[in-house]
Amino acid sequence: MRDHQLLLRRLGQRRDTRRHDGRIAVDQSDVRWCSDGFEFRCDYGSPLRVTFALDCRDREAISRAATTGGHSGDVVRDVMLAAVEQRFGTTQTCAPIEWLSDNGSAYIDHRTRSFCSRAGSGAVDYTRSHKADVPTARLHLAGAFEHYNERHPHKALKYRSPESSGEPLDHQLNGVRAS
């Protein structure tokens, strides 16, 4: 749409100056993480919304949260905190980590940005096969993310999974293992 000048012009100045070069993958773990979410319908039409955080180096799913409520800043902050605690065993990172997101309202919320500053950090297919009621779908998420980490191919890893890519995960070398 941008190429054909079909987007509306934004009035005023752009407040968000964060940009990246379009390359998501990085050369080492715990430098850049990304977060996003997806939703699917369980039996009887109940929605389950899943928010997750991935390391952009090894593509491992570090943390996740599932809720029948909205995709809120509170859930995003919970996922971010869980990721930091999982990797570093504390509520702060050892060095700044860049967080990539789609800049949805839950990510650009001033409370989420403030949380990131304090903490030191600036896949539906798996669940469709487990269609069930919400409690059962939540139980299957652990297996879905385990499959993602152990077997799912990633373009940045030459279509290998994070754990079968032939390269040791950086955080495993440091004695920390994300589940």
Describe what you observe in this structure.
The chain is α+β, with helices and mostly antiparallel strands. The protein has a single domain (32-163), classed as Nucleotidyltransferase, domain 5 (2-Layer Sandwich). The protein is built from six helices and four strands. It has a four-stranded mixed sheet, sandwiched between helices. Strand 1 and strand 2 (47-55) form a beta hairpin. Helix 1 runs parallel beside helix 3 (110-119). The longest helix is centred in the last third of the chain and has 17 residues, at 134-150. Residues 123-130 and 171-179 have low confidence and may be disordered.
Short description:
With 179 residues, the chain is an alpha+beta fold. The protein is 31% helix and 16% strand. The protein is globular, with a radius of gyration of 17 Å.
